Amino acid sequence: MRVLVTGLGGELGTRVAQLLEERPEVSEIAGVDFLPPRRRLRRTEFRRIDPRRRERLVEFVSEFEPEGLAHFGVYEPASRMSPASAAERTELATIASLSAAARGGRLRAVVVRSGLEVYGRRSPRTSVPDEHVPPAPGTAYGRSLLAVEAVAAGLGRRHDVPVAALRYAPVVGSHVPSPLGRLLRLPVVPVPALSDPPFSLLHPDDAARAMVEALVRQVDGPVNVVGPGAATPWQAARLGGRIPLPVVGPAWAWAARVAELAGAAIAPHVVELLRFGRTASGSRAVDLLGLSDLRPTQQVLSELYEWAAIVPLGTSEEAVA
Amino acid sequence: MSPLHSRDFGLDADATSPPEPLPAAVRRRLGGRYPVDPFGLDPQLCDLLSPLFDLTVRVRAHGMEHVGPGAATLVANRGLGIGEPAALAVAVRQALGRRLRVVGAPPVRLLGALSRRLGAVAATPEDLAAALRAGHLVAVPLAPTWLRTGAGTPALELTQAMMGFPVHPVAIVPAGPLGLPLARWRVCAGPPIRLDGSYPVGDPLGAAELADAVRHAVARLLEGASPDPAEETPGLAVPSA
Predict the structure, then answer these.
(1) Would you identify the CATH topology of the domain B59-225?
(2) Per-residue pLDDT reduced to its tens digit, B188-224
(3) Chain A to chain B, count of Cβ pairs less than 8 Å apart?
(4) Do A239 and B33 touch (CB under 8 A)?
(5) From CA A20, how far away is CA A213, in angstroms rounded?
(6) Nearest partner of A139 among A113, A127, A121, judged by Cα
(7) Which residue from A54, B48, B76, B223 has the fewest beta carbons nearer than 10 Å?
(8) Quick check: B130 and A298 CB within 8 A?
(9) Radius of gyration over every alpha carbon of chain B, rounded to an integer in angstroms
């Protein structure tokens, strides 16, 4: 299988390329992103192309004629770029690379990165949604992810290709630039004063494994990928030895401003997670992808805190983030 | 054990543990070394409060040996208030050493969050199905019947969600006079209800049949378990379903 990895410069894209290099059934791997891969890759052909340069991206992708597409060209606001440019790049990268990949005519499997953010607020009614619950995103990031899913699903219907959307729980870890991970590692963590809703996390290695399995098994439809168990904002802050700072309603905008000055911009989808929780039922991933040994949420959280404090080495922000 | 299940910091979302001494519990709380589960259950808080529940809700349980390990639903009658679910939770804890997840978390912010901490689950088919897939023991109350007699019909969409897992009828009777919970509650569980295997899981007609069968089974158990002042021995007749 010839596999194209978009968003190869991200932590997840790089990890997926590393895993694909070990699979004998994957003959060739190519990757694009506007940033270089984060680790050394042996047999992956990387091309540095900004999604805003549509012609170059389309040309490269259609010349490669991929059979499998792992789409990580989905950018989270406030992780490595501003919300506006994240949404713009996500849209451009998705439309250009998906349509160009289909143009080759050899496409057999498409997997796009999505997130639990598509379900929006954890409502007091259904709090642990499965894939049958209709998505109702409440934030820009959630809407952006749902748009990616819609583009991919449309492509799958037109070309009769299985399309999987992996709805990841928030991925945090020592090497993943994530607004939630940065926020939880601040010395003082804003938490909701009147509630303490549960949220689940996903280990970056598990997120990468899920992508490879979905691609190789040609899975169709949305799949929640969630670490077992859950944490709450208060408990997470205390586990890391942080001071929980109770915040109510309108004060969240203010807390976001202060956190941004402290070096951890809080995007609206992170505020939504802290105030209303974010969990989902992950049994479909166990059945379809064979992922019965996902790392539990509490272990992902412990690893996030065990990672030593950042020592400024005079490198750029992006390299240490 | 279900792969969706996790055991963090030595606390389990299904099996109960004895309450810790208070200083250790406070240290654990302040250190954040306690898990919650995706539905909001707080196992440490439940273990800490269990002696209080044992004191205030006294229960005599029968037929709990019918309930096997793993996911299952207990369908029980329900009056007003939280007496019946609380009595069933205490009975399950004492007889099986497991936590009971009760369907029917109020969709209100503060009260809802508190009940979820103690093991409640929203009354939606999605959440009920998710709890069963995660291997929990879930109580589904029949529609409330005002005077604590007889049994109502379970909601059809909830019955659809519980197909494919063992469904046990449970009768809960307050043993005090006039139905007041003054003496020990009687909790009486029956064997799982067998359903015609030709219905696929989630089939509405099959669900309606299951709902009828479970309502009759609970009603029969209630007749068998109704308080009899003369009868003081724990030997209760459990009708076979």
Answers:
(1) Glycerol-3-phosphate (1)-acyltransferase (3.40.1130)
(2) 999 999 877 778 888 888 888 888 888 889 888 888 7
(3) 109
(4) yes
(5) 10
(6) A121
(7) B223
(8) no
(9) 18
